[in-house]
Design a protein that fits this description.
The protein is of the alpha/beta class. Helices cover 45% and strands 15% of the residues. The chain has 2 domains: 159 residues, Rossmann fold (3-Layer(aba) Sandwich), CATH 3.40.50.1400; 134 residues, Rossmann fold. It has 11 helices and 8 strands. Strand 5, helix 7 and strand 6 form a beta-alpha-beta unit. Helix 6 packs antiparallel against helix 11.
């Protein structure tokens, strides 16, 4: 990189999580757009965090590790100093706007935004990119965002390897094991908006299954919000109920819409879904999450560099 060329900023965005149990109420209040949770709602969320972290809070480190690993991969592929990674979280500090402001303070003039979610929805990734774009405009930074990378070959390779590895846990029952892909549900009204989220999740699942040589698989939803409006379904617990009635006895949970260990994986799948499955005589195992997997980092770095170099139309 020439001395007069400024580095390109990379805003690594994710949902965010509290730094400690003490921060759960403020975090939940932000999710609820400034409305504090009821005592019952706060106790429910706090109990879930306690169940998975036991008073220790490693979840925040996952995003930190991913951002650091992406920085190393960009340094390796593009040369040190070509890109500089910043974090921007949706519901916790540093917020998306904080990340863009930090870029401006460092003299960044060009930036690429990347959400740690492979599939695009106007309600998820679209919302992150909109906030980043608005702040970039205020700061005078030229900004563009990676919309999706749900079929990137390196992503599919990383996930298919995990499916193959996960199936080995079942030994002789492997041939009868169903691979159950899942992702975070969204309000069902996205179907009226021609939103690509559901189709992209199915495409990712099909590609992983093909790469892993898996014929027995299904897709289901999980972690729907309690908002009083319909959400995409069926929920994973409904799916497990149906599978039990059909005689399925071994399931490999593959949360294809998530990229790290966090509440929706460590509680919703590892505790709630697993207990529900056991009660119905189903053995439920889960694949390892991507976290800072080298293949995943390669997919992210390639997506960033491709957009910055004009190689795709994201």
């Amino acid at each position: 990189m020439s001395a007069d060329k400024r580095p390109i900023g990379v805003l690594v965005m994710s949902y965010g999580t509290p730094e400690s149990l003490d921060g759960i109420e403020a975090y939940y209040t932000h999710i609820r757009r400034g409305h504090p949770p009821t005592a019952e709602q706060l106790e429910d969320l706090t109990s879930r965090y306690k169940a998975i972290v036991g008073g220790v809070f490693p979840l925040r480190e996952n995003t930190n590790s991913q951002a650091a690993a992406l920085q190393r991969k960009l340094d390796e592929l593009a040369g040190k100093g070509a890109y500089v990674c910043y974090q921007g979280l949706k519901h916790a500090a540093p917020f998306i706007e904080d990340g863009i402001a930090a870029m401006a303070a460092d003299g960044i003039q060009e930036a690429v935004g990347l959400v740690l979610t492979p599939q695009y929805s106007s309600m998820s990734v679209g919302g992150y990119l909109k906030r980043a774009q608005e702040e970039a405009d205020k700061q005078g930074i030229s900004f563009q965002g990676v919309k999706e990378y749900h079929l990137h070959p390196k992503l599919i390779e990383a996930l298919s390897r995990r499916v193959t590895e996960g199936l080995e846990k079942f030994g002789e029952a492997r041939a009868d094991t169903l691979v159950l892909f899942s992702a975070h549900s969204l309000p069902a009204k996205i179907l009226e908006m021609n939103d690509p989220y559901a189709d992209q999740l199915l495409a990712t699942s099909a590609a992983i299954a093909a790469a892993a040589g898996v014929d027995k698989w299904q897709f289901t939803w999980q972690s729907a919000g309690q908002t009083g409006q319909p959400w995409l379904g069926p929920d994973i617990l409904e799916t497990l109920e149906k599978l039990a009635s059909e005689g399925v006895r071994s399931v490999l949970a593959t949360p294809v819409g998530f990229v790290s260990d966090h509440l929706e994986v460590l509680y919703d799948l590892d505790i709630e879904a697993r207990n529900f499955a056991e009660e119905r005589h189903i053995r439920l195992e889960r694949i390892r999450m991507l976290n800072d997997d080298p293949h995943y980092m390669a997919a992210l770095a390639d997506s960033v560099m491709g957009l910055a170099n004009g190689r795709n139309g994201q």
